[in-house]
Amino acid sequence: MEADQTKAFLRCTEADCQQLFSIDQRIYTCPQCGALLDVHYDFNLPGTPVEMQTIFRERRAADTELDLSGVWRFRELLPFVNDLSTVITLGEGNTPIYQTPRSAEYAGLDRLRFKHQGLNPTGSFKDNGMTSGVTQAVALGASGVACASTGNTSASMAAYAARAGMRAFVFIPSDQIAFGKLSQSLEYGATVVEIEGNFDDAMRLVRELAEETDLYLLNSINPFRLEGQKTIIIEMIEQCGWQVPDWIVLPGGNLGNTSAFGKALYELQELGFIDRIPRLAVIQAEGASPFYDLYMTLDKSALRAVARPATLATAIRIGNPVSWKKALRALSCSDGVVERVTEQEIADAKAIIGADGIGCEPASAATLAGIKRLAASGIIEESANVIAVLTGNLLKDSTYTIGYHTDSLSIQSDGVSNQINGTFANKPVRSPAEKDQIKRVLAI
Ligand code: F0G
């Protein structure tokens, strides 16, 4: 393709191919070789990194919709939108970083911080990517958008599609997504298709449908979504005064976020915003850990899918992640690691994050469980500067939380039921409706 005036292209991620395509093409993989695509830029920033940092920060105090978005105030780092008045935003991003002393102690670290992406408009990090993905859908003139989802992608896509006045079709594994997430998709007006299968089945089907219809696919295979998700890292490092931490820890499912984080770090270093790349640690649930298996295997040329993934952290119940090759690239540029954790470890870690006054959904708590393991094995040093990403809000999956605190949480796997202990359960106390009795029950 002839390079035109635009600075943004689609580029094949396969090292031997690297073909460029126009961003006006509605493609998700390389038409030449089938590999995933990146949005690639010939960056031409209007200022030095220090000048850009000032501009990014000042926009937070502005009062335009675009500047108030924690994605679009970094727009020079994702310059694929020709007409900024077409951006679809809900004021996503700008999420806080919390110090969490209880979690740090639990993990065996001197200190630990969490960036809480669950405080986004629809309660998950997907909003950072959906604002950019739906904006591109509008630019392409798509009549509707579609995704397979374990719940959060669909909730977010449904909201942004509603804002854009577009039809949304979400494909979810039946009976396997948390109610909070399902209720969001219904409320935002998406057409919800419950597939009699798991997430991987839904993903395969929606990819086929997107090839044969006019629907624009908004799973993380879509490179424009990952552009928005890059800003989770950009904002995190901004919050650290543009000094990188030693480790960034996140849960891994379909591995889009890992891919986006890797691309953000690489570009920030290339552009001179940071002088080194922190290490990434990706945490998977034991029953859905194909990327961990790949990491532990010498031959990394093919991922062995997990046929029947099983975890109560339903957000990451994925056996055949589409972005594994990009995620491997992210590991290699960040000297990253992959860890896996048990259901019990996730459940207990979630209660500890709650005890820090923050809370999150189960998949997010895999981070703390993983950090605890990595600290115990000496991979993460006690004094390390660690920031983990909480990907989803506590209220997404209240069934799980109540199950844990009432000691009634269990996981079915291959016909066997395994009980999860409410190690840190905080059971509700029952009392007759009478003051003295309440005093006696509470011993106050
Ligand atoms: N945490 C939460 C809360 C998620 O919803 C997801 C993915 C992940 C972590 C994993 O991120 O896929 O980029 O590795 N949820 C997708 C969905 C699959 O459909 O909502 P990933």
Plain-language structure description:
The strands form four sheets. A six-stranded mixed β-sheet has the order 4-5-13-10-11-12, with helices on both faces. A four-stranded parallel β-sheet has the order 8-7-6-9, sandwiched between helices. The longest helix has 17 residues. It contains 15 helices and 15 strands. The site of ligand F0G has 23 residues, from helix 5, helix 9 and helix 13. Ligand F0G binds next to helix 5, helix 9 and helix 13.
Strand content: 15-25%
Structural category: alpha/beta
**Overall radius of gyration:** 22 Å
Strand order of the largest sheet: 4-5-13-10-11-12
What's the pLDDT, averaged over the residues? 96
Secondary structure: elements and pairs:
Layout: E1 8-12, E2 20-21, E3 37-41, H1 49-59, H2 65-68, E4 97-99, H3 101-107, E5 113-116, H4 126-139, E6 144-148, H5 152-164, E7 167-173, H6 179-187, E8 191-195, H7 199-212, E9 216-217, H8 223-239, E10 247-251, H9 256-270, E11 279-285, H10 290-296, H11 324-334, E12 337-341, H12 343-355, H13 362-376, E13 386-390, H14 398-405, E14 409-413, E15 416-420, H15 435-442
Parallel strand pairs: 5-13, 6-7, 6-9, 7-8, 10-11, 10-13, 11-12
Antiparallel strand pairs: 1-2, 1-3, 4-5, 14-15
Helix pairs in contact: 4-5, 4-8, 5-6, 8-9, 9-11, 12-13
The structure holds ligand F0G.
Ligand F0G is lined by residues 124, 126, 149-153, 220, 251-258, 315-316, 361, 363-364, 391-392.
